[in-house]
Every structure is written in structure tokens, then in C-alpha cells.
Specification:
single chain, about 290 residues, alpha/beta, 6 strands, Lambda_DNA-bd_dom_sf, Cro/C1-type_HTH
Length: about 290
């Protein structure tokens, strides 16, 4: 395993391997849980990478699955040890969406649809501050600053000279019409959005109100794809108290098809830039 793979991805890969061993043994998660005197939910969380995996967990599971090759056991034990290391985001303390950050950090491409706001990877500091303050009215200034810092750190994937994150963002018109902070904040944000849309690895499209109902009316979501074929794509849906991660092939496919419909119904890249430029003029009182 490459040394630069982050702990979130290590947990996913280890969980996938443990699931494969269980299925080869012909056992259900419930049967494994009964053998180890643990809950079935623990086995599920270990296999989907949402829970930290200890070397003891690996040892016990390999025992149940009767894995006799010590090289395989040693490899899995090392993966468990590596998966408990901390990513850069842990230095900021408790981040509610740390699992997502870990996935985004390792992703090769990201397709995101946002009906309400400019996506975090394309936000200016002023916009991010105003947005977080409005969305979390009980957050302290320190909490807001921490979230802003994390957001700005995430953006380094876009600015990277080598292997930058390939980002495709489809926005609803509401995302550019909603005045976050002030008109000046919006002018700076939309001008920055136009600047970022010029990058070869960043594509921005917009769905105007006049398009009416479309496949994205159900809400925001993102599709993450990874450079290693062993890592399955993930659909991420953000929630208020918990987030949803979909990894089953049929679920990812449904969202991927829906995203293709969104891209087809949105304004093309040039039309989108022209539209956003006109909105900037509206904020500046030039129209």
C-alpha cells in the first residue's frame, strides 16, 4: 500500500477486503457477529470503513474466516495500524464531516450538484464566513474560523500543480442569486467563481429558474471517484445530524445518470459564464 494513502481510504480498502473474506467463507454479517459476541452493526461499520478498525478486530475476523496465510493476516494487520493514523483534518479537532474530507482528499474527480449555495471548494473566505455564520447561528467565532480554515485547506486540491482534483459543479440559479453576506461579498464570490471556471480541470454549469422542474430538485449531492480501481465510487449526501454515503453500484449508477441529465439541462460553460457575469452586474447595480 502506498504511504501517501490517507487513513479514511485505508479503512475503506481494509473493510472491502474483510467483506470479501467473509463472503468467500459464505457467512453473513449476523453469523460473524454471533461468533465474536458483538453487534451486527459493528461488523457492518467495519466493512464499510465508517469505524476505526483495530488490529485485534482484524485478528479475530481472520480467525473466524480461517485465514491461514500469515502474509495476508500480516498485511491486513498493517492496514489496520495505518488506518488509525490521523489525516491533516484531525489537527482542527472534531469535524462533523471528517469521513467526507478523507474521501475528497484522495478522490480523482468530484461531481457536485448544489441548489442553494456555491460549493465549498469554490468559495471565497468572506462568502464562507457569512455562509457558515448564517447556517450555524449558535456557532462561536472560533468554531466558524475553524470551519473556514478547513474549507480553505480543502481547496488546495483544486490549486495543486500535480494531479489536481477534477471538479464538475452544477449549480441552481438560487446559488448565485442568494445574497450571502452582502452584495460586495457576492460580487467577489461570483468573480472568483468565474475565475475558477477558467481552469482546465474545473467545469461550472448553471440551471436557470426558467428550466423549471429537473432531476436535482430533491437536493444536493456529490459523486466521488478515485484513481485506484479498487476503490468504488461514492455518493455523498450531506445531512443536518448525519451524512449518507452510498457505495452500492446500482445506487451510484442512479445518481450518475441523474447527474448526466442535470448537465444536459444546464446552460453550457460559455452560457453559464455569461449568466454569472450578468448577475455580477445586477449586484453592482449596473443593469
Amino acid at each position: 500500500m502506498a504511504s501517501n494513502v490517507n487513513p479514511t481510504v485505508r479503512r475503506r480498502r481494509l473493510g472491502q477486503e474483510l467483506r470479501r473474506l467473509r463472503e468467500l467463507k459464505g457467512m453473513t454479517a449476523e453469523e460473524v457477529a454471533e461468533r465474536l459476541l458483538v453487534s451486527q452493526s459493528k461488523i457492518s461499520r467495519l466493512e464499510n470503513g465508517r469505524r476505526s478498525i483495530s488490529q485485534r478486530d482484524v485478528r479475530d475476523l481472520c480467525g473466524v474466516y480461517e485465514v491461514e496465510d500469515h502474509r495476508i493476516v500480516d498485511s491486513l494487520m498493517q492496514m489496520a495500524k495505518d488506518s488509525r493514523q490521523q489525516g491533516w483534518w484531525h489537527s482542527f479537532g472534531d469535524i462533523p464531516y471528517s469521513v467526507y474530507i478523507g474521501l475528497e482528499t484522495d478522490a480523482a474527480s468530484l461531481r457536485v450538484y448544489d441548489p442553494q449555495v456555491v460549493p465549498g471548494l469554490l468559495q471565497t473566505r468572506s462568502y464562507a464566513e457569512a455562509l457558515i455564520q448564517g447556517a450555524l447561528p449558535e456557532a462561536t467565532p472560533a468554531d466558524i474560523e475553524k470551519r473556514v480554515q478547513v474549507r480553505l485547506r480543502r481547496q488546495e486540491r483544486i490549486a495543486a500543480e500535480e494531479n489536481p482534483l477534477r471538479l464538475w459543479a452544477v449549480l441552481d440559479e438560487a446559488a448565485v442569486r442568494r445574497e450571502v453576506g452582502s452584495k460586495q461579498v457576492m460580487i467577489e464570490q461570483l468573480e472568483y467563481l468565474l475565475e475558477m471556471s477558467q481552469l482546465p480541470h474545473v467545469t461550472v454549469q448553471l440551471i436557470p429558474f426558467q428550466m423549471g422542474a429537473h432531476p436535482g430538485v430533491s437536493g444536493q449531492y456529490a459523486i466521488l471517484e478515485f484513481p485506484d480501481a479498487a476503490d468504488s465510487s461514492v455518493v455523498y449526501i450531506e445531512g443536518v445530524t448525519s451524512d449518507l454515503y452510498l457505495e452500492k453500484a446500482q445506487d451510484v449508477q442512479k445518481y450518475a445518470v441523474m447527474y448526466e441529465h442535470l448537465r444536459a439541462q444546464a446552460l453550457n460553460v460559455d452560457q453559464t459564464r455569461e449568466f454569472i457575469a450578468d448577475v455580477v452586474k445586477d449586484y453592482a447595480g449596473l443593469r
